[in-house]
Amino acid sequence: MIIYLVDIEHVTHTCPAQPEPHPFDTRRTVIDTIPGGECRTPVTIRCGGTTVTIPCYRHEPAKRQCGPCRIIVRERTITTRPHTLGVAA
């Protein structure tokens, strides 16, 4: 499995249309990547007149991918902060 460790930051604001605080900007930062290894079930496809072998993650849906090709995203931290631009200090 390819594992991506990410930090997520939500910036919230309020507006006349929706007075409850709600996120308007979400940023994800990749902190670490753990590679899964080589594909165990590569797929052979025809591309024009040539035959190409590619890893299964580039062709198959997630449930038909081999173990090393599956992608997992783990959230390390989720931070929510209010929008402060344009506010007088």
- Summed up, the domain count is 1
SS field, number of helical segments: 0
| Cα distance spanning the termini | 47 Å
Helical percentage? under 10%
Overview of the molecule:
The chain is mainly beta and 89 residues long. It has one domain (2-82). The protein has no helices and five strands. Strands 2-1-5 form a three-stranded mixed beta sheet, with no helix packed on it. Strand 1 and strand 2 (18-34) form a beta hairpin. The protein is elongated. The model has no long low-confidence stretch (mean pLDDT 89).
Quick summary of this structure?
This protein is mainly β. It has strands at residues 2-15, 18-34, 43-47, 50-54, 71-82. The mean pLDDT is 89.
List keywords for this structure.
single chain; 89 residues; mainly beta; three-stranded mixed sheet; two-stranded antiparallel sheet; 5 strands; 0% helix; 60% strand; elongated
Topology:
Elements: E1 2-15, E2 18-34, E3 43-47, E4 50-54, E5 71-82
Parallel strand pairs: 1-5
Antiparallel strand pairs: 1-2, 3-4
